[in-house]
Amino acid sequence: PDGAGIEVDGLDLALPGRGRTLAQGLRFGVREGGALLVSGPNACGKSLLGAVLLGLDPLGSGRPLPVRVPGLAGGAARPPLAVLMPSTQRVYLPPGNLGDQLCYPGRYRAPDPGSDRAPGSGAQEWVNTDRSLDGTGREEDMERALDVTGIAYLKKRDPSGLLFVCNWGEILSGGEQQRLGFARLLFRRPRFALLDECTSMV
Q: Which GO-annotated molecular functions does the record name (predicted)?
């Protein structure tokens, strides 16, 4: 249906303040369920294009660009993560437990004492602090994401499982961090994913 995809119509990519044009008149569209490969040499503007799609205005234009992304209606500056979520070469791993890494920017915690989802029922919950997301995630979905990306062993490193807390940026290799970032993407299941060298160390 109309408006269901990402559309770029006549976008010029130029580095602000450098007078260097990287691309002119870019036109393409990606529908939900489709794919688009952007390839080229280093510094040709691939990551710059990704930043434009994410609504970061890296061109410094300060004016509307010929880019249409679902979820930008009503003057929103950036598309919600439920619509477009990036997975990049460098993965941000916030302080917190293993579940937090999958839920980011949401948080994962044990249910409140006395709730019908109390520990012992084998269920946990994740707390959505990102208003752009709706729905709920379940522990089995997290485990599936870890398994598919080959890092299910992280949950077994400590008896607390998904509640295991450590400095993830220090104990995980670059490849493990990228796998965890991709597991986050699989768990969150956005309509579109923007992949920028997200498996370069795997």
A: ATP binding; ATP hydrolysis activity
Residue 81 contacts residue 22 (beta carbons within 8 Å): no
Give the residue from 181, 191, 193, 55 showing the smallest Cα distance to 133.
191
- Stated length of the chain: 202
- Secondary structure class of 185 (helix, strand, coil): helix
Provide φ and ψ at 86, rounded to 5°: -85, 155
Backbone angles phi, psi at 192, to 5 degrees: -135, 145
Distance CA 164, CA 142 (A): 14
What three-state secondary structure class fits 123? coil
CB 137: neighbour CB atoms within 10 A? Answer: 21
Residue 63, pLDDT score: 72
pLDDT digits (tens, 9 = 90+) for 84-138: 999 999 999 999 999 999 988 888 875 555 555 444 444 444 455 443 443 445 7
Q: For residue 68, give Cα distances in angstroms to 75, 85, 101.
A: 12, 15, 30
Token code pair at residue 32: 């939900």
DSSP letters along 78-131, please? S--TTTEEEEESSPP--SSBHHHHHHTTSEEEPPPTTSTT-TTSS--EEE---T
